[in-house]
Design a protein that fits this description.
By secondary structure, the chain is mostly helical. The chain has one domain. About 75% of the residues lie in helices and about 0% in strands. The longest helix is centred in the N-terminal third of the chain and has 20 residues. The radius of gyration is 15 Å and the shape is globular. It starts with a helix and ends with a helix.
Length: about 70
Amino acid sequence: MIRSLLPALALAAMSASAALAQAPTAQERAACRSDATKFCASFIGKPEQMNGCLRDNKAKLSDSCRKVVEARGG
């Protein structure tokens, strides 16, 4: 039973990480621009670190940016 679940779990994990790795759309960037500058300015130009910073600061983000972060798995 567990053996049959492993491929599905691996695929789900890869799909989630792929969604996070995709470049943000123009709409997502606009929703988070102010928050990114306010809370994560040192990570501008570093997408992976920026995503982590926004996740770490999710409680402080504007509603629109929080929705983007949550939609991207954060």
